[in-house]
């Protein structure tokens, strides 16, 4: 198997997949500032891919400098996974990940994302279909899962005993239950227990959940016997989080905002420039007049408007 997981430096410190966030422009910014050990695409609906392949093909684009890059898929219909997996497997990604942890109600309600936690039969069917699809390709890339420690309460032993028997190379665990969403305490001891179960079957384990810095990632990886950590929300507007002790100057933040606007402008259609605004908002913090700048940037519709506003604030 062409499995990069066993060649990558440990601990593995990667950028977590985030819906409508970790797109190509964001990953390019991250690569330029401080390249993580690996990156994921934003998660992609297999049903959406079938209905609007032209739209979703754009979300499957990546550049060689982003490697290793993993595509993350979600859904609840095994037939949909079967219909798309051959094509996705052949696109050159370094791995395929199935989302089994997203807490969004719109996804869980349909049985996808975190709705698969505890649904052993459907989860097995989906993962076996994806694995068989991967095996049909010549690249034979690794399969992984990103999930949580349970639905409404911890179900660590049963859930990870089940996953450990499937053809997975890696499981990434967000240390909260599905019902917690993104709030409440991250239960790292449960992640450690899951890692022990997975390691006994030769499956690598990554942790995830409220990791604040590179040092925090290294410490948690060591403390809880993990192979690595995925950093998510701490990277929003802060690509420097993958550099130890790095605090960007205001001018450096300004340059990155302009670069991000240029990347979004060249990657998306003009009407989709608004996708950049949330990133602008995240960049604007911890410097004088950050909130005022944020308000102005959140109204922009082009890279030229962004540059004009930034140049105005450079005079302050």
Automatic annotation (TrEMBL):
Reaction catalyzed: a 5,6-dihydrouridine in tRNA + NADP(+) = a uridine in tRNA + NADPH + H(+); a 5,6-dihydrouridine in tRNA + NAD(+) = a uridine in tRNA + NADH + H(+)
Entry cofactors: FMN
Please give the start and end residues of each transmembrane region.
Answer: none
Q: Which residues form the active site?
A: 102
Q: In the record, what terms sit under GO molecular function?
A: flavin adenine dinucleotide binding; tRNA binding; tRNA dihydrouridine synthase activity
Q: Where does FMN bind?
A: 72, 146, 174, 232-233
Alphabetical keyword list: Flavoprotein, FMN, NADP, Nucleotide-binding, Oxidoreductase, RNA-binding, tRNA processing, tRNA-binding
**Pfam families referenced in this protein's UniProt entry, alphabetically:** Dus
The protein, known as: tRNA-dihydrouridine synthase
Organism from which the protein derives: Candidatus Gottesmanbacteria bacterium CG1_02_37_22
């Amino acid at each position: 198997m062409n499995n990069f997981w066993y060649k990558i430096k440990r601990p593995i410190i990667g950028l977590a997949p985030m819906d409508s966030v970790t797109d190509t422009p964001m990953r390019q910014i991250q690569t330029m500032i401080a390249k993580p050990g690996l990156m994921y695409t934003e998660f992609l609906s297999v049903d959406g891919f079938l209905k609007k392949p032209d739209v979703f093909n754009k979300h499957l684009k990546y550049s060689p400098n982003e490697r290793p890059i993993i595509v993350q898929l979600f859904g609840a219909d095994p037939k949909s996974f079967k219909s798309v997996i051959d094509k996705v497997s052949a696109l050159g990604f370094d791995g395929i990940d199935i989302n089994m942890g997203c807490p969004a109600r719109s996804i869980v309600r349909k049985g996808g994302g975190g709705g698969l936690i505890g649904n052993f039969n459907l989860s097995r069917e989906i993962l076996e279909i994806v694995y068989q699809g991967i095996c049909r390709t010549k690249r034979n890339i690794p399969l992984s899962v990103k999930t949580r420690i349970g639905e409404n309460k911890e179900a660590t032993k049963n859930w990870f005993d089940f996953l450990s028997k499937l053809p997975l190379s890696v499981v990434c665990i967000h240390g909260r239950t599905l019902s917690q969403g993104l709030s409440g305490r991250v239960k790292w001891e449960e992640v450690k227990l899951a890692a022990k179960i997975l390691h006994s079957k030769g499956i690598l384990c990554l942790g995830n959940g409220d990791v604040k810095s590179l040092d925090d990632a290294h410490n948690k990886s060591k403390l809880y016997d993990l192979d690595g950590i995925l950093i998510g929300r701490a990277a929003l507007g802060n690509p420097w989080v993958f550099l130890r002790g790095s605090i960007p100057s205001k001018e450096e933040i300004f340059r990155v905002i302009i670069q991000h606007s240029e990347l979004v402008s060249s990657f998306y259609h003009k009407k989709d420039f608004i996708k950049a605004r949330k990133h602008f908002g995240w960049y604007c913090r911890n410097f004088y007049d950050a909130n005022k700048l944020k308000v102005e940037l959140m109204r922009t519709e082009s890279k030229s408007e962004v540059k004009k506003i930034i140049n105005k604030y450079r005079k302050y």
